[in-house]
Amino acid sequence: MAAVMSFLLTVFHEAWRLLLDSSMYILFGLLVSGLLRVFLSPHTVGRHLGQGRFSSVFKAGLLGIPIPLCSCGVLPAAVSLKKQGANNGATTAFLISTPESGVDSIAITYALLGPIMTVARPVAALATAVAAGVAENLFTQVKSQNTAPPDLSCPVDACCDGCDCPPDEHDRHHSLLEKIRAGIKYALGEVWSDIAAWFLVGLLLAGLITALVPPELMVLYLGGGLLSMLLMLAVGIPLYICATASTPIAAALIMKGVSPGAALVFLLAGPATNVTSLTVLLKVLGKRATAIYLTAIAVSAVFFGLAVDWFYSTLGISASAIVGQASEFIPVWAEWLGAIFLLILSIRPVARSLAGRFRPGHDHEAAPTPGGDHKAQASACSGPT
Fold first, then answer.
1. Tens of pLDDT along 204-243?
2. CA distances, 73 to each of 232, 241, 251 (Å)
3. CA distance 97 to 66
4. What does the buried/exposed string (b/e) look like for 227-248 if buried means 16 or more CB atoms within 10 Å of the residue's CB?
5. 2-39 and 176-186 helices cross at what angle (nearest 10)?
6. What pTM was estimated for this model as a whole?
7. CA neighbours within 13 Å on the CB side: how many for 83?
């Protein structure tokens, strides 16, 4: 019994340490995501993604980088883009870059994994998205299509639908302070509610890996090379985990001897794919596009994983030695306040998630897209763009 208690205490201690290291960076990422909700929504940019085999794909991939949505949460947003005129290539690019990155996951990547991985992660996500999107458009005859009118409804409080109130006039309805307040409310409410349970599970898994898995085993099978990348790919593709929640797990793996490249494969493949999202993709994009989607993620993840390992080796940098170093710039008292604040914010969404999973007839539902329910219905008016 004493041994079990000691083991559990080790798991929770390691999980708590990772939470302390990342808490303030997570809050920063959440706040930025809230501002993105107010000033940039995937529903309002669909009109830019319908024309061109290359430009539309690059725009879609770039726009997906900062938006904090998981592999299931991105599906409704991507469907909305496609309905508003985005071509298959642009939709595919958005589906890849969005769950693989996000301002929240970029912030926590810097906190736990260091600046090299912070740069490598979004760069690899964008490159993968563009490669998959361009490939899809090259295999598909891009036809001229009429783009549906964009959703111009108010992202602050849905005070108008944009039909009789053009954007330039509506900009005067809300002050900058009101927009910032709305963004913060959205970030600490809807965004964190969508990822809180998964993030806490990720912390516990990271603590479990640290306490349970011997470093020799990780170094033997996942210490670098093509086999390490393929093994991590096999683990990451069917797994459902968001970009933010996957980061502490990757940090724990690196501390146990996993190569940074193999960890990057997990960070790219895990958030971008899972069994649930792939079944939906088959319906939304079709078999060929889904095959291109998976192939692009697999090939790009392995390529960038090998490249990152080479980069660390060339510079003579130990990935495990820099895990969590960024948190040293944050005062200890601020780390504790941030961690406690995040735990308090997590009480309601975690309780709701647990209640939902034990409810009879429960089935997994995709997370809502930024913008709330009033965003679900695109405006049918043809107001100014």
1. 887 787 777 666 666 666 777 888 899 888 888 877 677 7
2. 23, 11, 24
3. 9
4. ebbbebbeebbebbbbbbbbbb
5. 150
6. 0.69
7. 17
